[in-house]
UniProtKB/TrEMBL annotation:
InterPro entries: UDP-glycosyltransf_plant, UDP_glucos_trans. GO terms for molecular function: UDP-glucosyltransferase activity. The keyword Magnesium does not apply. It holds the Pfam family UDPGT. This is UDP-glycosyltransferases domain-containing protein. Gene3D superfamilies: Glycogen Phosphorylase B (3.40.50.2000). It comes from Eragrostis curvula (weeping love grass). The lineage of its organism: Eukaryota, Viridiplantae, Streptophyta, Embryophyta, Tracheophyta. The chain crosses the membrane at residues 140-164.
């Protein structure tokens, strides 16, 4: 009995982590990052969530011409000025460096991981300049390691596969809108992953611009992170899940106050899950955002998808295609 107790004492106990979570400044990104933070906290891990308000950082960041005063997220700017918000976001590198230095100075309480978004190309080099203590077992060994970064992509697997890594885009450049109206050559045929021409205008002229665009940031951030986390469902994405593991083979890829309003006017978030749960709902018309589609899965309403931009067109056609396959059995009643 005494020997068994001694052996049990040598078994390493699970180590709780300190995870820094830092999303891009858009509610569609902040909400999934917050949900991830809540799941980590439920398991006992310490989570530091970094986001707006950024008023205290304004003196550290140079002002950006054309960006409205007080803009702290994409909700505060028009679509054509989102690029300016990305430039201003880069100015947070200096205050984040100070934050991370102070956090790492806390010894065992320092961060073990930093979860970043597509836009944080400047953050992994900052993390490489700092070190964290990592214990193995029960006080058996203490390692001093660099603080690793994990890239959390909130977009669906189909969109990540369509974008592809930088080296494949360099080998098969896409510069005109028409280039995005067919599946890229690295996706096995047949595939529904292609934009319609009016959708391709945005992806060609905004996302793939060689400046502060999303793709430039995504391609710079990806190789600097130790792990890539994406949202994938075998029933919906089918062969795209193992394809992503091949496309990013060098990395482990893991499939996971109120304003007073005038009288008579009420503005706020629609309680979508409560609405979908109502017996009067006969169908769900949606922009094909992945979170909305997953919420509808709880209730099984017929889906009518009206995609608008970014990943939504690809998501809609991928879901429609999989609804006709054996893997997507039960995903009927889907229209695009």
């Amino acid at each position: 009995m005494a020997e068994n107790k001694q052996q049990e004492s040598l078994v390493p106990s699970p180590r709780l982590l300190h995870v820094v979570v830092f999303p891009w400044l858009a509610f569609g990104h902040m909400i999934p990052f917050m949900e991830l933070s809540q799941q980590l906290a439920k398991r006992g891990h310490l989570v530091t969530f970094v986001s707006t308000p950024i008023e205290e950082h304004r003196q550290a960041a140079a002002p950006v011409d054309g960006l409205p005063e007080g803009a702290e997220s994409t909700a505060d700017v028009t679509p054509e000025k989102i690029e300016l918000l990305k430039v201003a976001f880069d100015g947070l590198a200096t205050p984040f460096t100070s934050f991370l230095a102070e956090a790492c100075a806390g010894g065992d309480a320092g961060p073990d991981w930093i979860v970043v978004d597509f836009s944080h190309h400047w953050l992994p080099p900052i993390a490489d300049q700092h070190k964290a203590r990592s214990s193995i077992g029960s006080n058996i060994c203490i390692l001093i390691i660099l603080v690793p970064c994990a890239l959390f992509l909130i977009v669906p697997a189909a969109f990540v596969a369509f974008l592809g890594p930088r080296e494949l885009n360099d080998a098969h450049p896409r510069t005109a809108p028409e280039d995005f109206t067919v599946p890229p050559p690295w996706i096995p045929a047949p595939s529904p992953l292609a934009y319609r021409l009016h959708e391709a205008q945005w992806i060609a002229h905004v996302a793939f611009r060689p400046n502060a665009s999303g793709m430039a940031r995504f391609w710079e951030t990806t190789p600097r992170c130790s792990v890539i986390i994406y949202r994938c469902s075998r029933e919906v994405d089918g062969p795209l899940c193992p394809l992503l593991e091949d496309l990013f083979a060098a990395k482990p890829v893991v499939p996971a106050g109120r304003r007073r309003l005038p009288a008579g006017l009420r503005v706020g978030w629609v309680p979508q899950v409560r609405v979908l749960a109502h017996a009067a709902v006969g169908a769900f018309m949606t922009h094909a955002g992945l979170s909305s589609l997953m919420e509808n899965f709880l209730f099984g309403h017929p889906i009518v998808m009206l995609p608008l931009f970014v990943d939504q067109g690809l998501t809609a056609r991928q879901w429609r295609s999989q609804s006709d396959s054996e893997e997507g059995a039960g995903m009927n009643n889907i229209a695009v």
